[in-house]
Amino acid sequence: MKRIMPITLLLAVLLVASCNWFENPVPQPKGEFRLTLMTTGLGTKGPEIEAAGETNLNENLIDTVDIFFYEHDADDNTNAVHCLQMVLPPGSNSIATITIPFTNVEIDKVFGTAPAVPAPATARIYVIANAKNPARTALNTIMANAAAPTPSYIGTSINSLKNLEVMTNNPLTSQMAQSFVMDGYDVVTLTADRTTMSGHVKMDRSACKIRVFVTQIDPVTIGEGAEAVTWTPRTDQMRLFFFNGVKKSHIDETVHPYTPVAGDYYTIRGGASTLPRQFTREPVTGTLDYWFNTVPYYTYPYEFDPDTMDRTYLTLVLPWYPGDDQHNPLNTYYQIPINVPGDYQFTRNEYYQINITLSMLGSFEEEEPLVVPISVIIADWSTAEIKAELRKYQYLTEDRIFAVLNNESSTTFSYSSSSPVKVKIDSVTYMNYSQNDITVTKLTSTAPASYTSYSISEQRLVHPPGSPSHTVTDTYTVSIEDGNIIRFEREIPNGSFSVSTITFTVSNDDGFSETIVIKQYSPIYITGERSYTNVTSNYGSVIVYGYRSRGTGGSRSISDDQNGSLGAVVNFNDVDGIAPNTNQNQYTMYVGVLCPGLLVERNYSIGDPRVPPNEAGSLPGLQNYGPTVKLDQYRRTRTDIADVIAPAYKIASSYGKTTNVTFAQAEKRCAAYQENGYPAGRWRVPTEAEIMFIVNRSKAQVIPQLFGETNDAPYWASSKRHYSARSNVWYPATGPASDNTLAYVRCVYDVWYWGDKKGDYNKDGTVDYGVPMMGDNPLGDIYVEQWGNVR
């Protein structure tokens, strides 16, 4: 007769506070053996009620279990000898008792046959709780195979089972998880009389848990004196967004690491959604004055790269009232990293408690949140007793870490720190464009950081317009002022046509530091870069009406559709940066102010030199190259604005020099000109003022020559006059030149209008230096198209 015996097991989801919870099971009467699942958490203070698992959040819930038994000497790669699956009654959170049928045959299979002299026996047990698909489907198949007339236990080794994939099915439909996947294994013992089986299996969750504690929020005052405005936080409207959580993994990611793919990530954000977490104040009376997100965020573990778009982080949204306006709070955004630097991974069954203080306004742009420092506690989710007690947190926060000064001599930064701060200027850098080879000037100091102020100075050569070059003392200073203010100061010397990048470090006595970068722009400044050439392929980046420059093979004369000369495309190897007018660089002129002495005897003004949009159109002789893309929205330079200079324009390098042409053909050449990835349809003939600005700065040795100053080579301006740099004379003296007059042309590109982004016609993320592109569409970069095939 077959004998059926229920067996008693104790499966503890949590490591409990006292071993009294696991007293040896009392032997039951013959035939009455039970499986007891214990999932109770720890009692604790603060918001983390039963911190090792919050029952009201289903963290202790067990709905199904899959149990696998192994012989006592089996390793993790050995298949089970017996397995079964059970569904627990609804709401099995604390203690659930279920009868398990065990036959004598099954006991012998697991523990071996009874020895002649009675003795206890052991076996291994592995338990999976709350398995989700795809693992659920795989486990159902395994159980069906094990229950077949000829049982099969293929795929039941602990190693294989830990490798099964699980996926959270509802992170975007509910704040609450239905249950959490858990697993655990241990050794179970069968008593010598083979009537009682006992064992304690500690269950670990496959996911990890994240919660934020805001331990301090201070009102913020912006401005001084009568202009001071105090901002008040609206803490009852705080929300917490979660970016790039992971909803798929292996049951045990520590044994089988899982690399998420695009579809495995999920993000919870948005003001209208009910999914972003709300904050609760604890205690309600405000005695301790801290806030926490009542419902945590959960994610499966993985290792991430902090520099990629897939990194996991939180964004806290906190509205603030400005001044006396208590009706229209403005949202501000704080980015909260979850991990400390150097530890860029989440581990299963861990609880991440992140503590932050907010002592300044966040960013008003969600896409650029203010990054706040954190104090993080990482503990075992199953064993930790996390108390939300206030303590002294160490922190250092600045209101911004990057600033731009446009013709400004100073700026201030607000900071909040747990200890005194000091400052140190790490470096000051700017570019030197006076030679063909562009160089970087870098200033540094070895002086230690200061609690008051820090300065770096140099004797700098400046080139003021209308005056001789001379040397001045140029000083950069960072100082600490009352009211948690850091001030940067530097008076921009007259005659410095550059952008200075200042990098300084703020640190405090607790060991925190932050690097701040300032870009300070002179009122008029110049930038430059080497124009692209590819020596290996023997091609350059100058393309005129589809004809691309080469390194060797001779300069090519090119024509339009009507056999009119468009000049030449020269060999880039002949532009060596040594001989006169062989400048290999493109320069961009940024003219932000009208500067006395810059253009002698010229009453220049800053504006748009092009014809108005209603005069845009095509040019004859440039319509038969592109089969589908046409040059039909081109805006040439006006002929009646000789003294107008564009606010920002780029000048072609000496790679773009050409043979002489008539003015009409020079205009066509510029319309069809492309260099260094900047498309055709945007270049034009420069105005007289634009030519004179470049010549002026070239003669001052701010940049090398670009207009043939060693000979009397004439260059066209949009006024239909031409200029000789060597003679410093415009021809003719009055009125336009005749239609058959020949001169050279150096085209310019309106950076102020088109921007400084290079062309990418196929949107693959790379600059198309060698593809003829058309960019005359006024809607800009999204309409850059391939004009035709290179010739």
Descriptive report:
The chain has 6 helices and 55 strands. The chain folds into 4 domains: 4-205, Immunoglobulin-like; 208-393, Immunoglobulin-like (Sandwich), CATH 2.60.40; 398-522, Immunoglobulin-like; 572-786, no CATH class. By secondary structure, the protein is mainly β. Mean pLDDT is 85; it is low at 1-34, 39-51 and 384-393.
Mean pLDDT: 85
Share in helix? under 10%
Number of domains: 4
Radius of gyration: 37 Å
Number of strands: 55
% residues in beta strands: 35-45%
Question: Keywords for this structure?
Answer:
six-stranded antiparallel sheet; 4 domains; 13-stranded mixed sheet; Immunoglobulin-like; 791 residues; mainly beta
Give the arrangement of secondary structure elements:
Blueprint: E1 4-6, E2 10-12, E3 34-38, E4 64-71, E5 82-87, E6 95-99, E7 101-103, H1 104-111, E8 121-129, H2 135-146, H3 158-162, E9 165-167, E10 182-190, E11 197-198, E12 200-202, E13 204-205, E14 208-217, E15 220-222, E16 229-233, E17 239-246, E18 248-250, E19 265-268, E20 277-282, E21 290-293, E22 297-299, E23 313-322, E24 330-337, E25 350-358, E26 370-371, E27 375-380, E28 396-398, E29 402-406, E30 410-417, E31 421-432, E32 439-443, E33 453-462, E34 470-481, E35 485-489, E36 499-508, E37 513-521, E38 524-530, E39 533-534, E40 539-544, E41 547-550, E42 556-559, E43 565-569, E44 585-591, E45 605-606, E46 644-645, E47 648-651, H4 663-671, E48 673-674, E49 683-684, H5 688-699, E50 714-716, E51 722-724, E52 729-731, E53 748-749, H6 751-754, E54 773-774, E55 785-786
Parallel strand pairs: 2-3, 2-12, 14-25, 24-26, 29-37, 45-46
Antiparallel strand pairs: 1-7, 3-6, 4-5, 4-8, 8-10, 9-18, 10-11, 10-13, 14-21, 14-22, 15-16, 16-23, 17-19, 17-20, 17-23, 20-21, 23-24, 25-27, 28-30, 30-35, 31-32, 31-36, 33-34, 34-35, 36-37, 38-44, 39-40, 40-41, 40-48, 42-43, 44-47, 47-53, 49-53, 50-51, 51-52, 54-55
